[in-house]
Design brief:
single chain; Rossmann fold; alpha/beta; binds coenzyme A; five-stranded parallel sheet
């Protein structure tokens, strides 16, 4: 049986913390699909297509990782690709309540679904896309948080967004 897992998130933009989880998941599962949720309620800076491009660029050529986007329920995406495992990163205890609610809601929506939590490397436990965007908009060097190419794209986007 092929062990397929999806790693959903907003990825606005993808960070070294997300990439760390993607690599860890790719070491455990036969197939990992990174799913860019449209997350319109979060009013993302980047379009789903831009976020997909950035994730693809950042992961390079890890054989067993694909990238896709999805507008609806995550449980519906799982059905579509015939998978039942959701990977999420757990950074700090403050993530726990939200993640607990999300995992149990998804389980209620589809009892076959299992959510598996992975801890990123401790260097990335404090990272968040929102803080990286804020720091970049105020001129900080964000090369420790995101790959160089993403830092450039983010800088350009923020310039146009002003
Ligand atoms: N490293 C760095 N940052 C991380 C991280 C990691 N390993 N893991 C999470 N984060 C950060 C993200 O950058 C993001 O930061 P931000 O809020 O400052 O932008 C934050 O943690 C949470 O982001 P993310 O992992 O992208 O999750 P999300 O809460 O935006 O997305 C979905 C949650 C998309 C999985 C969820 O909303 C969903 O499933 N949506 C689809 C609709 C659905 O099925 N709804 C019912 C769900 S019960």
């Amino acid at each position: 049986m092929v062990k397929k897992a999806i790693y959903p998130g907003t990825f606005d933009p993808v960070t070294y913390g997300h990439l760390d989880i993607i690599k860890r998941a790719a070491n455990i599962f036969d197939e990992v699909i990174v799913v860019i949720a449209h997350s319109e309620d979060k009013n993302p800076l980047f379009t789903p297509a831009e976020r997909m491009r950035m994730v693809k660029e950042a992961i390079g050529d890890i054989d067993n990782v694909e990238v896709d986007d999805w507008k609806g329920l995550i449980v519906d995406y799982l059905n579509r690709v015939d998978a039942r495992i959701i990977i999420r990163g757990l950074r700090m205890i403050s993530d726990f309540e939200y993640e607990f609610q999300m995992a149990l809601t998804n389980r209620k929506l589809n009892p076959q679904v299992e959510t598996i939590y992975m801890m990123p490397h401790e260097s990335y436990c404090y990272l968040s896309s929102k803080l990286i965007k804020e720091a970049a908009s105020l001129g900080a060097d964000i090369s420790k948080f995101v790959p160089e190419k993403i830092a450039q794209v983010l800088k350009e986007k923020l310039k146009r967004h002003k």
